[in-house]
Each structure stands twice: as C-alpha cells, then as structure tokens.
C-alpha cells in the first residue's frame, strides 16, 4: 500500500503542484495578464470539490454556510483543510496507479519465465 515508489511519486506530484503555484504566490500583485486566466481556471478546478461536497450536503465547507448573496462564497478553514486532504488522496491514488502500472510488466514477465 505505501510502497517506496508510490511515496516517491507522491512527493514528485506534490512538488510539481507547488512549482506550478509558485509564480502565482510570488507575483500575486504583479502577475502578468496572460498568466491570470490559467491560474483562475486552475484555482477553479482545484476548489471545485468543496462546492460539489457542499452541494451534496457536507456542512461547514463554505463561509456563511454558502449564503453569500449573488457571489460564490470562498471555502472556510475547514473547507481548505478538506481540499488539502481531498487532493492528497487523489494524488496518492494516481501515484499508486502509476506505481502499479510500472511494476506490472516486471511481475508478469517473472511469471512467464517460471512457466
């Protein structure tokens, strides 16, 4: 379950995610116009699970319980923690899948040699 290759891949995926968001964190006020739209889409995609979970009935994920008038409420502190856990689980599952797919030919080839 927690194989070494899975943990290494998970760390690589977390590092890639951090490197993608680094320019936004460093240049937030001086971000070039051509970079604002991709970060807006990426941020929307990464926060969408909170809105989906709130719509199916998980309370406390949005500020003011989702009652923000015409606008979308931002996630609460609990919502950001839920996002962190959600994306860590998703990245771990992807790392696990890649690890299993990478090791499958080796195990399958060893079985053929024995037969």
UniProtKB/TrEMBL annotation:
Q: Keywords, A to Z? A: Membrane, Transmembrane, Transmembrane helix
The answer to whether the entry has keyword Membrane is yes
Q: Which residues cross the membrane?
A: 6-27, 39-57, 77-102
- Mind telling me what this protein is named? Uncharacterized protein
Organism of origin: Teredinibacter turnerae (strain ATCC 39867 / T7901)
């Amino acid at each position: 379950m927690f194989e070494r290759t899975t943990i290494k891949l998970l760390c690589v995926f977390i590092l890639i995610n951090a490197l993608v968001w680094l320019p936004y964190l460093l240049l937030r006020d001086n971000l070039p116009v051509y970079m604002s739209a991709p970060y807006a889409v990426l941020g929307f995609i990464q926060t969408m699970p909170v809105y989906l979970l709130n719509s199916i009935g998980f309370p406390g994920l949005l500020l003011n319980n989702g009652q923000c008038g015409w606008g979308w409420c931002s996630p609460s502190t609990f919502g950001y923690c839920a996002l962190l856990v959600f994306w860590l689980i998703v990245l771990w599952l992807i790392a696990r899948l890649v690890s299993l797919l990478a090791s499958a030919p080796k195990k399958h080839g060893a079985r053929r040699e024995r037969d």
